[in-house]
Design brief:
The complex is a heterodimer of chains A (about 90) and B (about 280). Chain A is mainly β. Chain A has one domain. Chain A is about 5% helix and about 35% strand. Chain A has 1 helix and 4 strands. In chain A, a hairpin with an 8-residue loop joins strand 1 and strand 2. Chain A is elongated, with a radius of gyration of 15 Å. The model of chain A has no long low-confidence stretch (mean pLDDT about 95). Chain B is of the alpha+beta class. Chain B has one domain: q2cbj1_9rhob like domain (Jelly Rolls), CATH 2.60.120. In chain B, strands 1-8-4-10-2 form a 5-stranded antiparallel β-sheet. A 4-stranded antiparallel β-sheet of chain B has the order 3-9-5-7, with no helix packed on it. The chains are: A mainly beta (about 90), B alpha+beta (about 280). Chains A and B meet through strand 1 and strand 2 of A and strand 6 and helix 5 of B.
Chain lengths: ~90, ~280
Amino acid sequence: MALRQQILILYLSTSDLASNVCAWSIYDGTGKETHTSGDSDKPPYGSVLEAMKDGWRVIQLPQQFPAYPGMEYTTSFLKFEFALEKLVEV
Amino acid sequence: MTDKQHLLTTKQMAEFAANGVLVFEGLVPDEVNQQAMREIDDKSFNLWTGYSKSGTPLSRMWAESNGLGAVWRLPQVQGIIHSLVGPDPLYDHHAGHTVAPKTIGGQHLHQDSIIDTRAWAFDVQFYYFPHDTPKEMGGTLIIPGSHFRRVNTFEISRYQNLVGQTAAICKAGTLFATHCGIWHCARPNLTDKMRYMFKLRLNPTVKQVRLWNTDDIDNPEVHHILGRAQGWMGNEWRIEMINRIKFWRYVTGNDKFDHSLWAGRLENMPENQLQPA
């Protein structure tokens, strides 16, 4: 029996793991599911904490950096990106 | 000369400032849509493949086409173009986008072109759907409000879904006008027909200040429109608000414009005021 990784990426509204999900992505290493851009209008969980309660393990917390001088109002990537995993037997 | 009745209103411009996208449902008449589809099918002109010469005035483009080329000569479309990039914009590039039947994977989310370092000037991108585009056919996925985010093309392709995302599910003749910075991608096409979309990017040749019909410039609803957050912005919607205020100052030429003192309190520096001797 081999293990495969499923990755769930949740983008939250703040650094708080219980804050709302703003965006999400799913990558399934078992090959059973394929996810793509715009395939869902409802996030799978309301927060990272909710996903943890369903067995997902947090493997990345977003680091926080102060804005560089002059860059205070420049926006770019989604800021609060949390990566979670499940190991699934195949 | 563009007829004033076809220019955008201030409320529409505020919508563009806030969301970076305007939708004109079924704007292009049926006969033009049908001719556009004939031009696609018979591959007439060089409309569907390849770029024409960038920097050519739009007014000199595709005079021979009564379909894909004629779209841009419609008075209503001329009014939209004039309002966003001025009366005589330049052709940047165009592209015929297709999604083959039974395509189950969507395109990765992206912003066109590399990081745009211009402060507030912008190009406009049009997405023209010449045939009905139901949900199962995809339509372009658009992230409203993403246009001020500075990213390099496909750097954001890891993002699959954002709260508030919208898909171009529309009837034939629908035109989307977006700020060049908008995040977007093609959605899957689960039907057994090819999906077509014609994209055109235009560059301004004038400063983009008060190019629309400003009769309603003082409409209080402008503040309401500019103040609407998108669900995907989270805590950063406050930063987006500052960017909207700066953009609105640029397009109105009013460098004192503010919304609920969001910018004003940051600019309040009494220590810098000259005192009488």
